[in-house]
Amino acid sequence: MPNGRCSSAGSDASVGEPSGDQPCTSVFARAWAKAVVGTSYLPMTHAQLETLLQRLTDLLAEALRAEPLDLRVGHRVADELVASHVASAEALGRTVEVIQLRLIRDLDLVADDVEDRMARLLGAVATGYARALRDRTLDEQESIRRAAMTARAQAEQALRASEARFRHQATHDPLTELPNRTLFAERLAAAVDGSGDGRCRVGLCFLDLDRFKRVNDSFGHQIGDRALVAAARRLRQAVEPHLVARLGGDGFVVLVERSTGTGDVVAVAEAALAALSEPVVVDGHDVTVTASVGVVERRIAGTSPDDLMRAAGSTLHWAKSAGGAGWALYDAERDSREQARQELSAAIPAGLERGEFFLDYQPLTSLHDGSLLGVEALVRWRHPRLGVLSPDRFISLAEETGLIVQLGGWVLAEACREAVGWVGGSGRPPYVSVNLAVRQIRRPGLVQEIQALLRRTGLSPNRLQLEITESAMMTTSEEPVRALRALADLGIRIAIDDFGTGYSNLAYLRNLPVTELKVAGEFVRGLRTPQAHADERILASLVSLAHALDLTVTAEGVETGGQADRLRAIGCDAGQGWHFGRPASPDQILARIR
After folding, report:
1. What pTM was estimated for this model as a whole?
2. How many other CB atoms are found less than 10 A from the CB of residue 4?
3. Number of domains in the chain
4. Which range marks the domain in which residue 226 is found?
5. Is residue 68 reached through a cis peptide bond, with omega within 30 degrees of 0 on the bond before it?
């Protein structure tokens, strides 16, 4: 193809040589830049764009002049345009338009087939442009896909790390870093339920630090927490590889999986106690920590996590009750007895509401003339499943749980109500004697309650006797004694029950509002044999000293006439026991009075 010539105003130039100071390609490049500017985001200055387009213009011009026509130049121009971000459909349209309208004219290219060559070159540019855009789109999509995969992998990794962190926080104690109750429950359930062999065994050591509250009170909670952390570290090291968990407060538990017998779990308990036996040094303070451990070990078959934990808790209570700093082994029979006691204790309030309790009365008989002086109220429980229960089956339970206040209040009210009707005999109506528990005596408002009860029932105060245990009287608090004095001032009789088995002394009793001593049956029992001179002398001394203090004496547990005769001989005032009458119903007492 012959060289074209670049036109200049007013003159001609030879073929292939531009005319004037500015190359012809620069003129076209400026026009091209003006056409495409604003069609795409271009990360370059306008001058840089013109430089790029001038170089591409040179390539196009050389291609149009060359023989044969190399269409790859069009592809190259398109690639560079797209690579330089001149990559929109509008930019392509304007590029094709400006090349088609101006390139031949501005470069003064003359040839018979120049139009055809231009068309083919523009086709190559358009084709290359489309291919470059497609390739760039695919590359961008691949980059986005890879970035998305990387981001997803990073997010999944971060999520797993976050889940692991949250899982650790949810399953570990923040203070000691030991597993907490949640993780322990999971491991225990897996140990019990995950084994297909029911012959496998499992064990627990339920551990509680003894009197740890004293550490916090003495040194402060900060030192207490550090001592707890040190104790937890020692415990974990001592029983590895067994799982140690903190259940809260100062309670821990050790899981012994695949136990071969009780000895395995006992050895773990002893190792734990040994690890805690040495004082913990915290900020220069020697903090002594001891522990109680409940040990339970059994076959997996027939048990459950709840059964194991309940059994371990009961056993820990036994270890605590024994004084602490030791371990106790689970005893199924003992546990069964205690469960029955707890069930019985829980049934007391409902039994009172349903009217299952009733009173029998045992005579208090004069040893001088055999007259009926009074009766002692004895509570019974007509249990719907167990039958009639005597006081020794439930009174101690009521005292332990505090229900004795409610139960004792009912006994006192019922005894006063029934005693009002015991009149009509030729002699003086008997008084009714009612036991008061320690909790009742220390209850505020006791005097007012009894005054209201006497007014409501109409019972004369001198017909009510309150029996108090020695332990209730031997108190350092003045309030119970003050209440008893107020009751005595009303005319109510005050008696010491089971005298001689506690810590009372007659010198102390002279300052108390007591009217009667009830001598414990242990002393009276010895009077069955003629050789029981020691018991007889003790009783004689008690009676003599009591009379010196203007107190009357009633002997409990009198079962034979011989005992009654010997008591009468030493001057005892009254007797109570099967010799004088077994506990009887109110109707039978009334019949005896009449």
Report:
1. 0.65
2. 22
3. 3
4. 181-330
5. yes
340 belongs to a structural domain: no
Distance from C-alpha of 89 to C-alpha of 79, rounded to nearest angstrom: 14
For the segment 336-370, what is each residue's pLDDT rounded down to a tens digit? Answer: 988 888 899 999 999 999 999 999 999 999 999 99
Task: Check if the beta carbon of residue 429 is closer than 8 Å to that of residue 422.
Answer: yes
Are 93 and 128 in the same domain?
yes
| Residues, the chain | 594
Beta strand 243-248 pairing with 574-576 = unpaired
Residue position matching structure tokens 């009173």: 359
485-501 pLDDT, tens digit each: 999 999 999 999 988 76
Token couple for 412: 């006192």
Q: Note the Cα 345 to chain centre separation in Å.
A: 26
- In a shared domain, residues 251 and 353: no
Instruction: Identify which of 328, 327, 335, 342 has the alpha carbon closest to the alpha carbon of residue 307.
Output: 335
Q: What is the 3-state secondary structure (H, E, C) of 61-72?
A: HHHHHCCCCCCH
Tell me if 336 is assigned to some domain.
no
What whole-number distance in Å separates Cα of residue 77 and Cα of residue 131? 12
The count of other CB atoms within 10 Å of the CB of residue 468 is 21
Q: What is the 3-state secondary structure (H, E, C) of 170-213?
A: HHECCCCCCECHHHHHHHHHHHHHCCCCCCCEEEEEEEEECCHH
| Whether residues 20 and 46 fall in one domain | yes
For residues 372 and 468, state if they share a domain.
yes
Q: How far apart are CA 199 and CA 319, in angstroms?
A: 28
The residue out of 121, 146, 171 marking a domain boundary is 171
